[in-house]
Amino acid sequence: MTEKFVTAQSIDAVSCPLCNLLVSNSYRRTKSNHCPRCDGELSSRKKNSLNRTWALLITASILYVPANIYPILTLVSFGKSTTNTIVGGVLELMDAGQWTIAAIVFIASVLVPIFKIVALFFLVISVQFNFKWQPKRRAVLYRFTEFIGRWSMIDIFMISILIALVKLQAIATVEAGAGAIAFAAVVIITMFAAMTFDPRLIWDKLGEKV
């Protein structure tokens, strides 16, 4: 059984990167290279998509190590200093019986970043080596990866709120550690990596699939 995939490229059109409007290449050649709806610049593919995504993913992978090794916050109360890494904080929450919060932090701060990095690595490799395996599923994987990436910032938001509350009450001192900086960098860089990856590359060179 032969399944045909209709792409913008196959019908001589291009999708606007800002509003996703499908614009014919004849319009680009005769009228303007800007989207008629949002005036965004039209391009058949993102420039240097794979190279930029590779660079960002490698950087995020390197920073993920100190993000988990170094303390994410330091709490000083009554002269006693306590430091916690991401995993250490999850374990303390579990010891305190806060299983729901521990699960949320573990999923958002440990599983999601790892999943996002691995998924983007897979997508980049699949495009670079012209994999023809399940392009629809790979496209869905990309959209899911792009969607969940922002939720990894939950740890940073929690630290920010905690610092503000503690300073207001003046009962202790809370400082963000090197791990928090590295973790925030990982989240931001992986978000940029998802943005620089061009999912349209998944459909290139497919034509027909048997």
Task: Name some characteristics of this structure.
single chain; 210 residues; mainly alpha; Butyryl-CoA Dehydrogenase, subunit A, domain 3; 2 domains; three-stranded antiparallel beta sheet; two-stranded antiparallel sheet; 7 strands
Summed up:
By secondary structure, the chain is mainly alpha-helical.
What this model shows, in words?
This protein is mainly alpha-helical. The chain folds into two domains: 1-44, no CATH class; 46-209, Butyryl-CoA Dehydrogenase, subunit A, domain 3 (Up-down Bundle). The chain contains seven helices and seven strands; from the N terminus they run βββααββααααβαβ. A hairpin with a 6-residue loop joins strand 2 and strand 3. The mean pLDDT is 76.
SSE series: EEEHHEEHHHHEHE
Number of domains: 2
Trace the largest sheet across and list its strands.
Answer: 5-4-6
CATH topology of the largest domain: Butyryl-CoA Dehydrogenase, subunit A, domain 3
- Helices, by number, come to 7
